[in-house]
Design goal:
With 507 residues, the protein is α/β, with parallel strands linked by helices. The chain contains 15 helices and 25 strands. The protein is globular. The protein starts with 14 loop residues before the first strand and ends in a 13-residue tail after the last helix. The N terminus and C terminus are likely disordered.
Length: 507
């Protein structure tokens, strides 16, 4: 079925690997596109990334965390997201520190191990997860991280050429041509590879191209002459509405909250450092009844119908940042004037009276919150991660979301339940909830907007919209011929065959 190396038992699926010359070259999107194209071509395909660094995680059905990109890639592949697809997730808690999530669960014993010494602990788990997936599926589409040309990191690599060499993968090297310097990036990257690594590179991909392809010549020919590697695809620049793993991408800031977008009310989402899971606001931004603005520095918030504080991977540090830039005072000011304020997870903790960190999970000690919501939180070692439902106390409607937090929160007498089962509270016009993903739930969106005096009945099924967007992305990538080329190389190099008839072919 797939290529078999000396280290592999018969029957393991082949691996296609997308590596990049730089971060943000478009690897994640190309993997998602290939996953959808192969899935719709009748292939049981699965994504894989050995190690990801992101504070935007998603929760699998078993409660394990994986990076948002791998979750979306699994959706693209039409398979259930699984912690084996991203066995190691690093969640930055400061500029020089990250917590380690191993096979979906916090691994504090590894968090305290210096980064350079972790490979002996993590590489066996990466290999086991990858081999397990290869034994269950027809094809693995793996994603690298950053660039394989980081020679200072080669001895500790577990995510780039280490994976490729372990699996004898078909590697495609991607450059972001929109940034400029793509040919130099590709040439330089190949020059940094060892001979056994270079032999695995089956083609170059010029990604995010705008303009006339004829203007590229003689670049691809020159590159092939210098490296012996063909440029197999030029993928055009295209707009998409899939959430970005590393950035909060919604609308530009509006410094005065003016209703200048068709008269729609505006909602402010505060983007402090270490904000997490901010993809959950895409559904609200695309709803059509409101405009969502990202606020990154102090601006007047009077013109906003509501202010939302998202989750945070370092709640205490983000609260300190809010105070340092004056946004904590601004949020408090408009809250006292009656503007609706909602905190999600860490955002809720910041709105409360106190955050106690007795075990030093973040910075240790007792910290005063903003005092707008009558709740107090203790940070505990055991992390809660699970998908679930809750009942909105005021309407008795069931809503869906997921939890991912270290906090245990208790309410004082001035707080009334917002969600049942200790998942949310309200003090007057200030509310907080522990459930992420509520803005993907049509019932919650309607409830939230109705309290702002906005008709929230417009249906927006974000899951259906995202699925359609993944198919559109696959189609856009297919126009470059990249997916068909990968399939051709698989057949030539591994004797690859499908195990099921295609659902439909894209492109």
């Amino acid at each position: 079925m797939g290529r078999v190396t000396a280290a592999d038992p018969p029957g393991l699926a082949p691996v296609v690997m997308i590596q990049g010359c730089t971060s943000d070259a478009g690897k994640s999107l190309l993997v998602a596109a290939l996953c959808r194209w192969f899935a719709d071509s009748g292939v049981r395909v699965v994504p894989f990334k050995a190690q990801n660094m992101s504070n935007n995680a998603a929760v699998c059905a078993d409660g394990g965390e994986i990076g948002l990109a791998q979750y979306l890639q699994a959706v693209a592949a039409r398979v259930e997201p699984d912690v084996r697809m991203n066995p190691i997730l690093l969640k930055p808690t400061a500029d020089t520190a990250s917590s380690v999530i191993l096979l979906g669960r916090p691994a504090p014993e590894l968090t305290s191990v210096p980064w350079g010494e972790r490979r002996s602990h993590t590489w066996p788990m990466v290999k086991d997860a990858l081999r397990s997936l290869r034994s269950e599926f027809d094809l693995v589409i793996a994603e690298g991280a950053g660039s394989p040309a980081e020679v200072n990191l080669r001895s500790k690599d577990i995510v780039n050429m280490a994976v490729a060499l372990e699996t004898d993968a078909l590697v495609y090297l991607v450059a972001d041509i929109d940034r400029g310097g793509a040919f130099a990036h590709l040439l330089g990257t190949v020059e940094c590879l060892e001979p056994e690594e270079r032999r695995l590179v089956h083609g170059f991909v010029l990604n995010k191209f705008r303009g006339d392809e004829s203007l590229l010549h003689p670049g691809p020919e020159w590159l092939a002459e210098r490296t012996g590697i063909e440029t197999v695809a030029v993928v055009p620049w295209f707009n998409h509405r899939l959430p970005d793993e590393d950035r909060l991408v919604l609308h530009d800031e509006r410094p005065d909250g003016r209703n200048d977008d068709g008269g729609r009310p505006r909602i402010a989402v505060i983007a402090y450092p270490w904000a997490s899971n901010f993809d959950e606001f895409e559904g609200l931004a695309n709803h059509g009844s409101v405009t969502v603005d990202v606020i990154r520095h102090r601006v007047p918030l009077d013109g906003y119908a509501a202010v939302v504080l998202p989750g945070s991977r370092n709640t205490v540090a983000s609260l300190s940042w809010l105070r340092s830039v004056g946004l904590a005072a601004e949020v408090s000011r408009v809250a006292r004037r009656g503007v609706q304020v909602l905190g999600i997870c860490g955002g809720m903790q910041m709105l409360g009276l106190h955050i106690d960190d007795p075990g030093g999970l973040e910075s240790g000690g007792l910290h005063h919150g903003m005092g707008l919501l009558d709740v107090s939180t203790v940070l505990v070692t055991v992390k809660t991660t699970r998908q679930g439902t809750a009942v909105v106390s005021r309407t008795r409607e069931i809503v869906h979301g997921y939890e991912i937090h270290h906090g245990l929160t208790t309410a004082g007498p001035a707080a009334v339940p917002e969600l049942d089962e200790g998942l949310g509270w309200r003090t007057d016009n200030v509310a907080g909830v522990y459930l992420h993903g509520l803005f993907d739930d049509a019932a919650y969106v309607r409830i939230f907007l109705s309290q702002l005096g906005i008709n929230g009945d417009r249906p927006h099924d974000r899951h259906a919209a995202m699925d359609a967007e993944l198919s559109a992305v696959a189609a856009a990538v297919a126009t470059s011929g990249f997916a068909a080329r990968v399939l051709s190389d698989l057949v030539d190099q591994t004797g690859f065959v499908r195990t099921a008839p295609p659902v439909h072919l894209v492109g």
